[in-house]
Specification:
By secondary structure, the protein is mainly α. The protein is built from six helices and no strands.
Amino acid sequence: MSGGTIKSVSPSSPAPAENQPAATEDLAWRRHIPALASAVAGIRQASDAWDAVSDSFCDTDGWPVDEHGYENGKVKRDAEAWQHVEVFLDHGPEVLAGVRATAQVADYVEGPISEDLRSLRGIDRTLEHAAKLQREWDQIMALMDASLPGSRKLYESQAQEERNADGWHYADELAIRGPALGRAADYLVRRADAEQSAHAERARVALARSASGPRGTLPASPPAPSAPNAPVPGRSR
């Protein structure tokens, strides 16, 4: 379970320097990208499963006729979605900070991820509010354990339902904005890989060229030295 603390990443964080590619080995946050993709899929799955059955609890005007079944369905949806929100709290802030540190100024202006980068501004607030909700839950559980030993078993389920219900709004927002974060992160990692491969290839070619020596026309051989003690021609008598 997430501890509810995230690294604060301000939407107004200074943009990285232009033309400053990040080395692939420095992109430690890349390992979190699959977890975010899985979390988005999980939230959508919980939402779609509820949408598929919610109408069966309502009349033609959309009002619940089976309130017990309707509420139980929402409780199930919210609980499943919150599990994936916790994944975002564990992995999202590091990926978000990594993307903003790696993206170049030009990436925000144009290019395949410019729109995704601009849309990430709102995801900070979503993560911060979800983290605050989780911290409040942790505090409530700690108070129960400290003040009323044994009361946690009685009230934990109800408190959990309330947290999950409040968290559904953040889960829904993350399902919308999360894919933009994943796309931007994936693109920047692949670009860094390509840049590193190109750099390695240039270094390999330069090394091979240096090892083979200079190529071209060989220099002319120096003239042969004259024979020592050669007789000096004299006058004929």
